[in-house]
Automatic annotation (TrEMBL):
Any one Gene Ontology molecular-function term assigned to this protein's record: ATP binding
Protein name: Circadian input-output histidine kinase CikA
CC per GO annotation: plasma membrane
Keywords of this entry: ATP-binding, Cell membrane, Coiled coil, Kinase, Membrane, Nucleotide-binding, Phosphoprotein, Transferase, Transmembrane, Transmembrane helix, Two-component regulatory system
Cellular localisation: Cell membrane
Domain (Histidine kinase): residue spans on this chain: 42-275
Family stated for the protein in its record: In the N-terminal section; belongs to the phytochrome family.
Main location: membrane
Keyword Calcium belongs to the record: no
Entry keyword annotation includes Mitochondrion: no
């Protein structure tokens, strides 16, 4: 009897020790992740300053050269400017990611007019799509309310990431965005909203490459692409979806992916209309994965 009790006590002590170790490990992980985010935020900030002056002066060279530069020199000034802009957007992405990961990004909730969204997206993307010979359409479903409350800048950032991917990975056909009042099935209602909140869906549908099922989770991780080989056909940093996913969580929403290889992909963003006293969620983002359409 005594032996059994000793055995049980030893087991409990072992379990306690394991739990304490796990807790210590989780705390260490949190601290190192915090250091990483702070390092990235500081580094990105320091890089932006010299880069901004490169951009300003290359612009100046292009615009105020009084015909003193040759055509080739003007072309090179353009290259400096384009590469500088690419680098700036990479730095901004890293900065955003580190801010949102370290919980330092506060959403700026305000009323936004959904009826203006199609025009904003069309202005931004129609030309790019047309240059690739793609149809581009933004459809505002008649049941969509005029206003919703969210962070407009972050909503646009998510949509721009999804739409530019849709255009990038599509060679024939069309890219279509549908905005509507969302009807969610029970399993997607884990989205942390209360019943009085309206949910709006933004579905970005393309007729492009499609994404293999075994890459669904990977592509939402930072710096990851479905085609990770050196010979890959498409450029990019692999940060866009990771940022979009984190921002979606910040705004209390869900991002769903449905795709079929060779047929196309649909990324659907569900966002609740928030109240201004909304507290951002700290939980790690979850990517919801649906089966093929
Ligand atoms: P990037 O576009 O810079 O590579 P993202 O994080 O935005 O980074 O996307 C990660 C990867 O997900 C892409 O490299 C691509 O492999 C895949 N992907 C994203 N959107 C699409 C899409 N609409 N169609 C096909 N593949 C996509």
């Amino acid at each position: 009897m005594q032996e059994q009790r000793n055995h049980a006590q030893a087991k409990t002590a072992e379990a306690e020790e394991a739990r304490a170790e796990m807790q210590l490990y989780a705390e260490q992980l949190k601290v190192s992740s915090q250091y990483k985010s702070e390092f990235l935020a500081n580094m990105s900030h320091e890089l932006r300053t010299p880069l901004n002056s490169m951009l300003v002066f290359s612009q100046f060279l292009k615009e105020n050269n009084n015909h003193t530069l040759t055509d080739d020199e003007l072309l090179y000034a353009g290259y400096i400017q384009n590469s500088g802009n690419d680098l700036l957007s990479l730095i901004n992405d890293i900065l955003d990611l580190s801010k949102v990961e370290s919980g330092k990004m506060e959403p700026n909730i305000d009323a936004i007019n959904l009826s203006e969204m199609p025009q904003i997206m069309e202005q931004h993307f129609s030309e790019l799509a047309a240059r690739k010979g793609l149809e581009f359409a933004v459809i505002l479903h008649p049941d969509t309310p005029n206003l919703m409350f969210t962070d407009e800048q972050r909503l646009q950032q998510i949509l721009k990431n999804l739409i530019s991917n849709a255009i990038k990975f599509t060679t024939i056909g069309k890219v279509e965005i549908t905005i509507r009042k969302a009807v969610l099935s029970a399993e997607h209602l884990e989205m942390q909203i209360d019943n009085s909140n309206e949910v709006i869906s933004f579905a970005v549908r393309d007729t492009g490459l499609g994404i293999p099922k075994d890459k669904y989770e990977l592509i939402f991780e930072s710096f990851q692409q479905a085609d990770g080989t050196i010979e890959r056909n498409y450029g990019g940093t692999g940060l866009g979806l990771s940022i979009s996913n984190q921002l979606t969580t910040l705004l209390g929403g869900s991002l769903l992916l449905e795709s079929e290889l060779g047929v196309g992909s649909i990324f659907t963003l569900y966002l609740p209309s928030l109240s201004s006293d909304f507290e951002p969620f700290e939980a790690a983002p979850t990517v919801e994965i649906l089966s093929s359409p």
